[in-house]
Write a structure and sequence with these properties.
The structure holds two protein chains of two kinds. By secondary structure, chain A is an all-beta fold. In chain A, 0% of the residues lie in helices and 50% in strands. Chain A is built from no helices and twelve strands. In chain A, the strands form three sheets. In chain A, strands 2, 5, 6, 10, 11 and 12 form a six-stranded mixed β-sheet that branches. Chain A has a four-stranded antiparallel β-sheet with strand order 3-9-8-7, with no helix packed on it. The relative contact order of chain A is 0.34. Classes of the chains: A mainly beta, B mainly beta. At the A-B interface, strand 6 of A face strand 4, strand 5 and strand 9 of B.
């Protein structure tokens, strides 16, 4: 079956620090990969996505590259802000599966201190 | 503005009681989903619906039921058979099942607790 593994949090950083959140996946098909972000008390929002190998998704200064050879989709940001404090979820969508179901990782809480 | 509305924001359930969580969308999306989120864990799929009057079980459907009588609405009932219902419930929608890798739009969630 499909699965997504993320590094456990919480990750605590100072403003302007470099952020990396590791994500690896297992899939039977050829998945699309996503990063979603959840701010306190809210639902999830799509942050970025990549649909094929070597694609780079980017948004709001965040980047992630689809690495098929290492089955990874690590999230990076060069300089974080306090407003980036949230829970980040890596997810995959198996194109061979019925429907558009997402398989989520466990989430990584990020806390950015001023 | 288009979006997904979940209500109520907080809900309390007594022993043996069924409760229903509301999810409405005005995005004209065909597909809708219910996820459960437990503290420190990822989201798990309860049920999903690709089209009106049709729905399928997800990974943890036991103790839950759904209906899809209208395109805009996908209510979730947490029945008394669900022995551990305390969780944060998230409803989502997407344009349609034909688009693999389509973006999901999420509501702001309902926190269900047991009295």
């Amino acid at each position: 079956g499909n699965s997504v593994t993320q590094m456990e949090g919480p990750v605590t950083l100072s403003e302007e620090a470099f952020l990396t959140i590791n994500c690896t996946y297992t899939a039977t098909g050829y998945p699309s990969l996503f990063w979603y972000v959840q701010y306190p008390g809210e639902g999830l929002q799509l942050l970025l996505k990549a649909t094929k190998a070597d694609d780079k998704g980017s948004n709001k200064g965040f980047e992630a590259t689809y690495r098929k050879e290492t089955t990874s989709f690590h999230l990076e940001k060069g300089s974080v802000q306090v407003s980036d404090s949230a829970v980040y979820f890596c997810a995959l969508s198996d194109r061979q599966a019925a429907g558009n179901k997402l398989t989520f990782g466990g989430g990584t809480r990020v806390l950015v201190k001023p | 503005d288009g979006g997904i509305t979940q209500s109520p924001k907080y809900l309390f359930r007594k022993e043996g009681q069924n409760v229903t969580l509301s999810c409405e969308q005005n995005l004209n999306h065909d597909a809708m989903y219910w996820y459960r989120q437990d503290p420190g864990q990822g989201l798990r799929l309860i049920y999903y619906s690709q089209i009106v009057n049709d729905f399928q079980k997800g990974d943890i459907a036991e103790g839950y039921s759904v209906s899809r009588e209208k395109k805009e609405s996908f209510p979730l009932t947490v029945t008394s058979a669900q022995k551990n219902p305390t969780a944060f419930y998230l409803c989502a929608s997407s344009m349609g099942p034909r688009e693999r890798g389509e973006k999901l739009f999420f509501g702001s969630g309902t926190q269900l607790s047991v009295l």
